[in-house]
Amino acid sequence: MVLEKELEFRKEVVNGAKKIYEKGLNDNNEGNISVRFGRKEEIFITPTANQYDSLMVDQITHIDFEGNVIGKGKIPSTETKLHIALYKARPKVKCVIHTHSPYATMLSIVRKPIPIIMEEQVVFLGGSIDLAPYGEAHTEKVGEVALKALNKKNGALLSNHGVIVCGKSVVNAIKYAELVEKLAKIYWGALQVGTPIMLENENLEKFYEMYDRLFSNFPKK
Ligand SMILES: [Zn+2]
User: Fold this and answer.
1) Is 205 a catalytic residue?
2) How far apart are CA 99 and CA 91, in angstroms?
3) Which of 12, 30, 42, 79 is catalytic?
4) Which domains does the chain have, with CATH numbers?
5) Residue 96 CA to ligand 1 centre (angstroms)
6) What is the 8-class DSSP label of residue 118?
7) What is the pLDDT of residues 97-152, one digit of tens each?
8) What single-letter DSSP state applies at residue 71?
């Protein structure tokens, strides 16, 4: 039985999961989405072997920051350590999404970070999308390297693996996951036809200011 106070959080995970699936960012059995349980050191996350198209609230796994399952529920995703590392480091983060979206994953395999190519990238993600070195998916290391690649930003690529994003809301995190994939596709396309020109930081001040004010979730002190 699902407790009433948990229900809205479980629903947020299910609805978010269905959105990233519908947008083609993850297929069944890959990636994951989690939501922080209010102010607690606990999260709700999609289960291992997740079937996005038939996912239901009682299949969402409730775990604490040590990775222990609370109550009954399916085994959590093997990548929970990645999610927990972000929640621990960034108290403002409400939602973490990990995808294997194709264009971003392609760039992660040829180990190409995405430089600043569009203004919206700065506004929503905080700048370039950097690349975390390879870290085995189910280990602590993947969290460490992801945090380093994220730096103060909202999204990063994981070498030979995919994408990690985090946001102050589920809506924001979905937006970031989509935007990383869109930028990866655009950058990939631009590389096919010429040499991409990066935007200059000196012209981006107002966009950095918008990022800091509206979307950054990196602790200020
Ligand atoms: Zn993965």
Assistant:
1) no
2) 22
3) 79
4) 4-215 (3.40.225.10)
5) 13
6) S
7) 999 999 999 999 999 999 999 999 999 999 999 999 997 767 778 899 999 999 99
8) S
